[in-house]
Amino acid sequence: MQWYSGPEGDQRIWYEAEDIEQIATEQLRRAELMPTLKDPVTDVERLIEVHLRAELDLYADLPDGVLGLTEFPARGAPKVSIDGALTEAQDTEGAATGVVGRWRATLAHEAAHIFLHRYLFDPEMAQLAGHSGFVNPNEGGLMRCLHRDISPVTAEWNAARRRPDWREVQANRAMAALLMPRRIFRRLALLEIREFGLGTPVAAQDTERIIATLAELLQVSKQAVGIRLASESLVARA
What we know:
By secondary structure, the chain is α+β, with helices and mostly antiparallel strands. About 45% of the residues lie in helices and about 15% in strands. It has a 4-stranded mixed β-sheet with strand order 3-5-4-6. Strands 1-2 form a two-stranded antiparallel sheet. Helix 1 (about 15-30) packs across helix 6 (about 165-180), helix 2 packs parallel to helix 4 (about 95-115) and helix 3 (about 85-90) crosses helix 4 (about 95-115).
């Protein structure tokens, strides 16, 4: 990680994409929550509450369009709030994989803010991370994540779209790494591809069933699986 100043003089942290992948993987290892082939679903609630030691409110009354919110007090544990309507929707019997995936993505996204961005609000952690000129060390901070902010990250951003918040881009990269750790994801994907009698890269006409199967197994969205498969060169490029 590297510190730098944004266009308005704000303090920012630069992570390479591979750094984020490794950081997220290390968090899972240290928490002893690394998924396996037999149990490939990451326990994100436990990651937040036990490993990251944050308060977690799954039934928060958040403003419209806000799926998750992480509060960093000047001193003390972070607090993660998840939209109560989203939690209730995924709690419903027979909830669609997409709904469950959205809920789990929101949890993982907020977890990522804690281990990637707490340095921005905690002066002691900032100094440990090599930043001596910390700004506003006693204010704490708030990360409010909208529906549009929590989504898988593609290799290239569409220049016609609004420029996304740098912190949300980083949190989304870590979210994918938490929910689909590279090593277990590749092994699981290759097993399913072979089960279908296919080779790699999977042809375009066969990708949908692979994506649907992996999304169900990992409890993530189809979009997230599709992007992860493409980034690992397991499916043919469009």
